[in-house]
Design a protein that fits this description.
mainly beta, 5-stranded antiparallel sheet
């Protein structure tokens, strides 16, 4: 038999700054040059969007993709994050949101 697998990846754009929890952004007394930065960190989240052409209404979450990147980079904020989605279908539909950017570990607020 012949199996048909279809898919595509789409660039969704650039997010300048992202965090899924409140962070201290007052950097007036912080030496920004000395902040720990982990570059080119990727996070993702995947959801099954359809089964046998019936929608599941359970797509992937951008918030969970950002959280994944922050956990991998051990930081508080994701900067210059490129967002992409990848979708493929073969009896089920699957979609992944990926973010790739720099993770900054901000100092604790006083």
């Amino acid at each position: 038999g012949l199996a048909l697998l279809a898919g595509c990846t789409t660039d969704q754009g650039l997010v300048t700054l992202a965090s899924m929890h409140p962070v201290q952004l007052d950097v007036r007394n912080v030496d920004v040059q000395k902040l720990p930065i982990m570059r080119d960190v990727e996070g993702s989240h995947t959801g099954v969007t359809s089964i046998l052409f019936f929608p599941t209404f359970a797509g992937p979450s951008l918030a969970l993709a950002v959280d994944d990147a922050l956990a991998r980079g051990r930081g508080d904020a994701l900067t210059r994050a490129q967002v992409t989605t990848t979708k493929w279908w073969f009896l089920i539909g699957v979609e992944t949101i990926s973010v790739r950017g720099n993770v900054i570990d901000l100092p604790e607020a006083p």
